[in-house]
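Morning, I've got a small favour to ask if you have a moment. I've been staring at a protein lately and its backbone has me curious. You're getting the sequence in one-letter code plus the fold written as tokens. I've dropped the whole record in just underneath, so have a look:
=====
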Amino acid sequence: MAERRTLIYVLGAALVGLTAGCLVAWFAITGDDRSGATATRQEPVGMGTSVDLGNGWSVTVNSADTDADAEVAAAEEFNEPPAAGKRYVVVNLSATNVGDRPDTPEVEASLFGSSGVEHDGGNLVTPPEPRFDTVAELEPGGSTEGNLVFIADVDETDLLLRLQPLIEVGGNRAWVALDG
């Protein structure tokens, strides 16, 4: 009976070890690295650099207008001016389906700056044309380009855009510097 329990414990430990090893291998293969394997916050890439999010999408920040109040006001008559002490930031990006099946751009973008606080994505604000289309299905190799709008403090410096998969399973975070 003792030999049987020992065998069960040994097999159980072996199964746990095998499972852990498989998970480590899976995360290594899929690029599921929360440290920001593509570009870190401390060492962001510059605009114009394509980053692979590991979820079938490659994204490039083409340009950023960090003082875009006039452009946002002209984009839609119902866009209100930013609140006192705030400003609009418009970011133009491209997303390319590098996967092997048709898909919609599964990209989440967030704006950060010197305060270290994530800034509002301006969901109720219409960005200038072309608007980034998150619902159009793209065939493998297909791309879309468009603008997103964010709201930041007027005195915020060192603006960074964090890009990551919309559903963060098996993907990478990438940081892109918007200033300079």
